[in-house]
Write a structure and sequence with these properties.
Length: about 260
């Protein structure tokens, strides 16, 4: 029979390895500059997930290398291993612990998504039209002003993007906003963002949608409300008929905010 596993030592090694990996990985600015109220929350979520992953990785590595070292066959030992039936306590532990970790991750992500997608009154509604391989935008008001390839939004005001794919699935992604949302033909999807930094960013299609996918980008300008109003007032074109048609025809499948009693 083998002796008691040095559980305390293995746990200490696991914690030490978790600390080292986290100390290296967490300070790295994985997502780049943030420019929306969601950014710090998403970045924090990522840091927590990195620590959790580092813990699981360390635990597996410590046990693996312990087993490799401790149970290595002696030279010339051709005998079979001991017939071991199992270990109920161990099996319960390796089921319960990962379950708790995964449930914690799910609950935490849920609450962050719920928080960043909480709609507020007075939000600006912008229609987003995606097609191979271009973006265009419709602004509210009696004229339905239309902008091709350039999205402007005011600073510090929540924007509800109502997305309408015209052909295949595209995906709306402004890295600085930390928001990524699929545009699906036939349905309306919604992204909720509150930009909180002035500047010029890029909207990137992040769903492989055909030959021109890599070039499917648009300029995003976050400006003061006054500049924004001026810009919209200066738009010459109105949303073309077929695009307007898709707004009417797409089913409203807005993901109702979690916890708002929808679904
Ligand atoms: Cu696309």
């Amino acid at each position: 029979m083998m002796g008691r596993l040095p559980i305390a030592k293995m746990l200490a090694a696991t914690v030490a390895m978790t600390v080292v990996i986290s100390a290296v990985m967490v300070p790295i600015n994985w997502n780049g500059q943030g420019a929306s109220t969601a950014a710090p929350k998403i970045d924090e979520l990522l840091s927590v997930m990195i620590v959790l992953s580092a813990f699981v990785f360390s635990l597996v590595m410590v046990m693996l290398f312990y087993a490799l070292w401790k149970f290595k066959a002696k030279p010339g030992d051709e005998s079979d291993g001991e017939p071991i039936h199992g270990n109920t306590r161990l099996e319960v532990a390796w089921t319960v612990i990962p379950t708790i970790i995964v449930l914690f991750g799910a609950g935490y992500s849920w609450s962050v998504l719920n928080e960043i997608e909480e709609p507020v009154d007075g939000a600006l509604k912008v229609q987003v039209f995606s097609q191979q391989f271009a973006w265009s935008f419709g602004y509210p008001g009696k004229d339905n002003a239309w902008s091709e390839g350039e999205l402007h939004v005011p600073l510090d005001r929540q924007v509800h993007f109502k997305m309408h794919a015209q052909d295949v699935i595209h995906s709306f992604w402004v890295p600085e906003w930390r928001i990524k949302k699929d545009n699906v033909p036939g349905i309306t999807t919604t992204a909720i963002v509150t930009p909180d930094k002035l500047g010029t960013y890029q909207l990137i299609c992040t769903e492989l949608c055909g030959f021109g996918h890599a070039a499917m980008r648009a300029t995003v300008v976050v400006e003061t409300p006054a500049d924004f109003r001026k810009w919209v007032a200066g738009l010459k074109e109105t949303v073309p008929e077929p695009l307007m048609e898709s707004v009417i025809q797409d089913t409203e499948t807005d993901p109702v905010p979690l916890g708002a009693g929808g679904a």
